[in-house]
Amino acid sequence: MENVLHFAELDSTNTYLKDNFATLADKTVVMADIQTAGRGRFHRQWISQRGGLYFSILLKPTQTDFAANLTQLMALSVCRAVEELGAKPTIKWPNDVQLSGKKLCGILSEAVAAENGLSCVVLGAGVNVAQDNLNYVGQPAISLREAGIFIDKEILLSSILNYFWQGYNKVIESGFSSLREEYIKRFPYLGKEIAIKNGAVDCAGVLKDISPRGTLLLSSHSGLEEILIGDLIV
Ligand code: BTN
Asked: Which domain holds residue 118?
């Protein structure tokens, strides 16, 4: 496999890259067999027991206009890799991957301000690969093994990274538009009644479209709203 720093245990692969970004090369990948302080979106905990795939990539793009869309590229890359194994995943905007309506993968992107004024991006993903019991997750979750798919997590990582690097330059140059068609094929919520939760703020309505920049266009009682961030609830 390409150059991957593989640890038996880390607090968090995202934290490791954030702490060491200055001395590590662009596109460094780090994985850990377990994480003792794995982190999720909105400061949630990501419990990381043995059997899961936990990895992060350090990215030092020359321009970061479309950095937010890298999470969507990662979701699509995970989908493509598990589709090769016979699964039929879907994407729950912005970047969860689901199988049978349960969470298979979560993605956390964090920006780090570098000294030269540009920012680095640390993009981390946790994929449920071989755990048997995900009851500790605060929402319905599933592993590939529970879905009857047995795969070595390093082989899976290699496949995910292949798809990710195939799409990376296009996303950096032109953003979500380079992914939109393939993303929407795996996104089953268009035209549906949904709600979006962002902290204490909730909004609900019919999901009209995904915009060219990857945000949701929601028709609600106050008109057409553009949703930039939040959790989608069906
Ligand atoms: C989420 O769904 O809230 C995002 C979860 C992201 C978890 C991954 S596991 C590898 C990387 N290291 C972390 O601490 N978090 C991400």
From this structure: 4-185
